[in-house]
Design goal:
The protein has 92 residues and is mostly helical. It has one domain. Helices cover 52% and strands 0% of the residues. The protein contains five helices and no strands.
């Protein structure tokens, strides 16, 4: 979540973010959409069948051996990638 620099009422955005980050709210979202929540405090409110679902919560051994994680690229690298992609898309 982010708040635009020129948001007319950033205090409302902060209130919304604070609400969404509550463990009970995160658990309700996870229970509904079956998507993992990074909020560890929410786990005690998540249904046991959702926590047991390996698609929603992959086991540690899967994450250690088969999952792929992407490194965050430096700004210079991202800039070069964007320029190359723009050239490719524009046909230059």
């Amino acid at each position: 979540m982010m708040i635009p620099a020129d948001a007319p009422h950033p205090e409302y955005a902060h209130a919304w973010i604070n609400y969404i980050l509550r463990p009970q709210v995160q658990a309700a979202i996870t229970n509904k959409v079956m998507f993992t929540s990074p909020n560890l405090a929410a786990r005690k409110f998540i249904k046991p069948e959702v926590l047991a679902n390996p698609i929603a919560f992959p086991p540690d051994d899967y994450l250690a051996t088969k999952a792929q994680f992407y490194e965050v690229r430096k700004a210079d690298t991202r800039r070069i990638m964007t320029r190359l992609y723009t050239k490719f898309k524009s046909g230059l």
